[in-house]
Amino acid sequence: MSLPSVVTASLLFLTASSVAGAQESTGPAAPLTTVDGSHGSGITVHGAWTITVRDSNGVPASVHRFENALDGGGAVLAQLLAHPDASVKDWAVSLNILGSNGTSRCIDPTTRAPTTCIIAGPVFSIDPQGGGVRGLVAAVTGNTLALKGAIRAMEGGTIIEVATGVQCAAVCSSGRFTFRNMAESHAGEPAPVAIVIKPGQWIDVTVVLSFS
Hints:
By secondary structure, the chain is mostly beta strands. About 10% of the residues lie in helices and about 50% in strands. It has helices spanning about 5-10, 75-80; strands spanning about 30-35, 40-55, 60-65, 70, 85-100, 100-105, 105, 115, 120, 135, 135-140, 145-155, 155-170, 175-180, 195, 200-210. Strands 1, 2, 3, 7, 8, 11, 12 and 16 form an 8-stranded antiparallel sheet that branches. The longest helix is centred in the middle third of the chain and has 10 residues, at about 75-80.
């Protein structure tokens, strides 16, 4: 097995309930960083987001594609390379939506109560009282890890930050893996067009991380 394949397998949370299908990358992405591996080899990480905003009737209102920057993920990858026993437990995706009254909230589909705009995997630790929703699916194809989920906005606003979060089962550090400030350029790519959210709209998120 190649070094990128080993890392991708380690990054995938290996629980049957988390694997609902594979998500292929739709094209080349700008490299986030290169992490040194064993024997002088390296792993280049690519990241790509697709956010589709849907009206309450399911009709897409807008589609946005952009890259993100490696945040704490470099340390996680280095730990996975250095420690064969290191493994990832689960993943989450977070959206920071700025509204007229501060940070906007999303809707918990079970309780209908307001919640933080976080989409978490089945065993990712979140506060059951407004700490986000479940439903994030992780799938691996070759050297590509895809995270996919959806959440509904309770309040309107503009997405100003996006991030992926990783929770480790052993050895590696839990925390933010990738991050993008939507007002800033990245790797020569200009800042994305503003993603405006209206109350009640659905936000479909797909994040594709590839390793080479």
